[in-house]
Design goal:
- The protein is mainly beta.
- Helices cover about 5% and strands about 25% of the residues.
- It is built from 1 helix and 5 strands.
- A 5-stranded antiparallel beta sheet has the order 4-3-2-1-5.
- It is globular and about 30 Å long.
- It comes from Cytobacillus depressus.
Length: about 140
């Protein structure tokens, strides 16, 4: 969903309880949308288009690469990770597995793995809050 001029960017602080999606969408996030260009590696085969992956994220936690510039995450970097398991580090120091399905001018949205709930929950944030990411 593109960001409109009068629509502010959203982040996880705006989602009570850890995030179920931007206002106006039911729990579970927005309606599904197909990946650009059809099938892509890491996209859940047989699953709902735009929905969460059909399996948990990888069991390992990747190390942050040392050869990066802080706050250098750009739209192109995030776009390469669409429909792929992605480990995200936020500016707050928190890190988690994420499965991005939508990118706007200033935000990214998708499915965040909740270890506590052992399931994917819909989540989005302003891309300026992403300190580093690695996709697999």
């Amino acid at each position: 969903m593109p960001l409109h001029v009068n629509q502010p960017a959203f982040d996880e602080r705006a989602f009570p309880g850890g995030g179920f999606g931007p206002p106006g969408f039911p729990p579970g996030g927005p309606p599904p949308s197909p990946p650009p260009g059809g099938f892509q590696p890491g996209y859940p085969s047989g699953g709902q288009l735009g929905g969460p992956p059909s399996s948990p994220p990888p069991a390992f936690i990747p190390q942050m690469l040392q050869s990066f510039t802080p706050y250098a995450v750009e739209l192109a970097s995030i776009r390469r990770c669409l429909y792929r398991f992605t480990h995200v580090w936020l500016d707050s120091g928190r890190s988690f597995w994420f499965y991005p399905v939508s990118i706007g001018r200033n935000f990214v949205a998708g499915w965040r793995w909740s270890r506590r709930q052992n399931r994917w929950v819909y989540w989005g944030t302003d891309i300026r809050r992403i300190y580093h990411l690695r996709c697999f």
